[in-house]
Design goal:
With 219 residues, the chain is of the alpha+beta class. The chain is built from seven helices and four strands.
């Protein structure tokens, strides 16, 4: 039996799932797990059948109940992860639970939450499609955004609207020359002329001014 094709390359995934996979890895780093490996992304039907045969017509334990076309890996909408630390690849429950919680919050589906045949390393995003629909020819649009991306887009649009609705702050005539100089030398961006200056903003301005006048970092 042919072993078929099995990839670990994130670029083999659907664009939305690619971005989701990379964002999951980034968020895992924020959560203190800096060694996230990807053990599988896209696999063809032949490799899926080869995996299905294990424990049935091939030696070994059963590792999947999905034949070719019955796994989201076959449609580039799933990937598997592991902890990329020698000897700790699969035995850290906290690693997989954290990943599953993050992925679920991003709008994906975690295999570890399945009641039947839980699969902790498995992450998928189907966009509401079904395997039957995929076999029948349905596809996730290449322009698809995962829910976490939709949320970020909405938040960005909200911030932009709030900025557009902020009352215009006029620059006093006596301050225009100073504003132009500060903008030219990249000390300020010229906005919010009547807002109070915070301490952290003052620190940044003084630091920039020192670099401007001394040509080096004061540290």
């Amino acid at each position: 039996m042919s072993t078929g094709f099995n990839s670990r390359d994130i670029a083999e995934l659907h664009p939305a799932v690619q971005r989701g996979c990379r964002e999951l890895i980034r968020r895992m780093g924020d959560a203190g797990f800096n060694h996230v490996g990807v053990s599988g992304t896209y696999r063809d039907h032949a490799h899926q059948d080869w995996l299905f045969a294990q424990g049935r017509t091939r030696p070994g334990n059963i590792i999947t109940n999905a034949q070719g076309g019955q796994s989201w890996h076959n449609w580039r909408l799933a990937f598997d992860i592991f902890q990329n630390i020698r000897g700790q690849e699969w035995n850290n429950q906290g690693f997989f639970v954290t990943a599953g919680q993050i992925w679920t919050a991003m709008g994906g589906e975690w295999g570890g939450s399945w009641a039947n045949f839980p699969d902790r390393p498995h992450m998928q995003y189907t966009g509401g499609l079904t395997l039957r629909g995929m076999v029948a020819g349905q596809r996730l649009p290449y322009t698809e955004l995962m829910p976490w991306e939709e949320k970020m887009l909405t938040e960005a649009e909200t911030r932009a609207t709030q900025t557009d609705n902020e009352p215009h702050q006029a620059v006093a005539g006596w301050a225009t020359a100073g504003q132009a100089w500060a903008m030219e030398n990249e000390l300020f961006d010229g906005t919010r002329p009547t807002d109070p200056l915070t301490r952290q903003e003052a620190w940044t301005v003084l630091h920039r001014y020192h670099e401007l006048t001394h040509g080096q970092n004061p540290d």
